[in-house]
Specification:
Strand content: under 5%
Structural class: mainly alpha
Largest sheet: none
Shape: elongated
Order of helices and strands: HHHH
Length: 153
Amino acid sequence: MRSSMRVLAKEHLALRALARIIALEAELLSRDGRADLDLLQDIAAYISEFPNRIHHPKEDDFLFRHMRARDSARCAAIIDRLQSEHQKEDESIARFLVALQALRAGAPGAAEDLAEVAAGYARHLLGHIEAENSLVFPLAEEVLQDEDWVEID
């Protein structure tokens, strides 16, 4: 595996772990209306910064750009989908934070709302990572040439 792919794969492992924690906290909220709100706040803060500022640029500006340039016919559809999801990330995190703040403020129905938003976000994040790992990464290995990897790595 190329060094850039190893880095992205490790980052995906960390993000998957956070998605699983979010899903578990959502389940606790659904079951008894309680969760570790400080933990969810910290995860939301991390996710609002790390993917958009560090992780996604590696994918969008290097890997995806080279894939699209090398074989747009094979790569464009999946890359378009994933980049669209990257762009919607801020909206998803904002919804998550609004729901979290509503629960902290004691708003009626806020636990159920946060549970739904958190579970949905966790499913989205896990699905997004799975698509990158199982579809894009193997496709990148197929279509990219050594000179592409020199710039990407």
